[in-house]
Fold these 3 entries.
Entry 1:
Amino acid sequence: MSRKISHMAFFAVLVALSFPVYAQPTRTVYKIGYLVPTSQSVSVSRLEAFRRGLRELGYTEGKNIIIEYRYTEGKPDRLNDMAAELIRLKVDVVVTSSSASVRAVKKASATTPVVFAAVGDPVASGLVASLAKPGGNITGLTMLSQELSGKRLELLKEAFPKLTRVAALWSSEGTGLEVMKAVQTAAQGLGVKLQSLEIRTANDFDSAFEAAIRERAQSLLTHPLPVINLNRERIIQFAAKNRLPAMYPIPEFTDAGGLMSYAPNYADLYHRAAVYVDKILKGAKPADLPVEQPTKFELVINLKTAKQIGLTIPPNVLARADRVIK
């Protein structure tokens, strides 16, 4: 009986060995570079919107995607090194914002796909050939800096009709000159004298603030730039101390105590950036993906701040607000 069982076992082994062994299919894990020209604290809501977009499209960190995060903390000299590092890691696509960040990645690689989630004017910046046909390895979403900067001044004037002198914090970085021209055009139409205060580094704020006081500025206007976004606390404190009504370029300013902000819905832009990433990972070429514009905008007003500095927001402006902080 034992001999019969041993023969049967031997036969079973031979049968098993005669069938080919198939390896389990390996799961593709994509690698995404996430390069931000500011700090992590400034872009928390945007990152979460991007992650949510990826999850809705079937991507899970640690399973089928790995995200390599890089934050420059507002130090532009770090962009090139961080971009080059992401390329060395052989990421499948880089997600970023700001013209300088895109150029840093382009310098590191002419082939790695790049998706920008929020760039002022990618055509004027030379990042893409046109919105409809970007060409090359770069595409994404624009935040309409020129158009919105003029609109911010209009809203500021509408809220405070007696304003005649406005100090503008800006930079020539990227399309800064074009943006400033748009604001100057809007200022002329509104009968407002615009004081130009260019900010290149964080060291320029003190002299800019002194100039604003010296010229008796009645209000403050800022543009969406990394150096300005990273120094929002200083700017907010300056405006509050001098009781200046101020209009800001991103809602994080009003959430931190600033008076007003008007901007695209950045969470929506970053959420939509995930769609670009998905298409590229599935084989689409950036050159064939048109650059999209924002479809949602937010006017945020901080009534608590208005009361603290003795300002009254007209009812017609309050009625237009998408969010009011009380």
Entry 2:
Amino acid sequence: MNKFLLKFAALSMIITGVLFTPALVSADCSNPANTQEAIQCGASNSAGVPVGTDAGSSLDNTITNGINLLSIVVGIIAVVMIVLAGFRYITSGGKQESISGAKSALTYAIIGLIIVALAQVIARFALHTATSPPSTSQSSSGSGSSCPNGQPVC
């Protein structure tokens, strides 16, 4: 029995070593097929993003998708609150306390929708401003130009 356990343990260790030992792969750095090849190609490909693509655009897309998802969730909650406030208003039975509570809930839900819409606009503007490359054009005023022969752009 002990020989069987010893053989089983040795065989298990060999199989585990073969399965979990990383394979040596010759990576094609011009177009890595997976993240492992990208890491082997160096730091510029270590995130799995090929060198030719703009890493800032993938970050921009990730942030935009997160903002869109958050806006959708908050928008759905605001619409549900508007429906519930309308239901509370209809079923108030003429009681001033119920009517005023329903009106305030409706007002807050609409204000929430407006805030979400404005936050979406502000976030898109900030992302566009932060991720767009700066303008490199210089004015051609002539004075103060450090370019040779008075050229506007060096």
Entry 3:
Amino acid sequence: MAKSFTDYDGHVHEAGETWTFLGDNFVPYYDGMSLFVSPDDESEWQIRLEWTDEGQGKILDSVDAYFVPV
């Protein structure tokens, strides 16, 4: 990860954190975007984001600035 961010649930994801991307899900009614990732190729995390100006819209509008493929 190139830049740190705080997800919808208040968890901080620090720059340099790495995981394997497993998939995503968007719920338009709530502007909710869930990223499904694995930090160790065994467990699965759900990173919830809210696609609004008050939430994590800035992150989702500029994903390339936050997430870097390795």
